Amino acid sequence: MEAFLKNVLSDAKRQSSVESQLLDSRAEILDAMYETVESGTAAIATVKDMMCNVRTEVKQLQPLASTVDLIRQELSELGKEVEKLEGKMKFPYVCLSCGKPLLPEFKICPYCGEDAQLLRSPAPVISLGEHK
Ligand SMILES: [Zn+2]
Fold first, then answer.
1. Where are the beta strands (DSSP E) in the chain?
2. What is the CA(125)–ligand 1 centre distance, in A?
3. How far from the centroid of its chain's Cα atoms is residue 82's Cα?
4. What is the pLDDT at residue 119?
5. In angstroms, what is the span from residue 94 Cα to ligand 1's centroid?
6. What is the mean pLDDT of residues 65-90?
7. What spacing in Å lies between the alpha carbon of 2 and ligand 1's midpoint?
8. Is 115 helix (H, G, I), strand (E, B) or coil?
9. 76 pLDDT above the threshold of 70
10. Each residue of 43-72: pLDDT tens digit?
């Protein structure tokens, strides 16, 4: 009788040890699942952070877009200024008397009436040009 009980007990012990092993492996699986969930959560958090960053960047970009429009306007105005300057550069000489741009064929300054032949001087803007 005692032997039978011992057998049952040892059987129960073995069973419980098997069960505890099963539980251990289950716990491992649970741990692994938990880690997966945790890393998944971390990944989701990272994605959330990234989306949040992108959102704030988009919010920052929206005023930038209007700034770019302003810069474009300023650039087109600058382009007009450059065109004006280029128009002025077609006059390679300035009158030394009044400082107005003069064409090289002008003999008399149309602005101040001075003798342009004597007073003309290479304008600094085209000093790279063909003047001697
Ligand atoms: Zn002049």
1. 93-95, 101-102, 120-122
2. 18
3. 29
4. 60
5. 8
6. 79
7. 134
8. strand
9. yes
10. 777 778 877 777 777 777 777 778 888 888
Distance 116 CA to ligand 1 centre (A): 7
The DSSP output letter for 108 is B
The alpha carbon of 82 and the centre of ligand 1 are apart by a number of angstroms equal to 24
Q: Give just the sign of the alpha carbon dihedral 96, 99, 103, 107.
A: negative
**Predicted confidence (pLDDT) at residue 132 exceeds the cutoff of 60:** no
Determine the Cα angle at 86 with ends 83 and 90, to 5°: 140
Comparing 100 with 116, which gets the higher pLDDT?
100
- Ligand 1 is an ion; residues with CB less than 5 A from it: 95, 97-98, 109, 111-112
Residues 64 and 32: their CA atoms lie apart, in Å, by 46
pTM of this structure: 0.29
Cα of 100 from ligand 1 centre, angstroms: 6
Cα 79 to ligand 1 centre (Å): 28
Angle at the Cα of 112 (from 111 to 115), degrees rounded to 5?
110
Q: Which residue has the tokens 């005023």?
A: 63
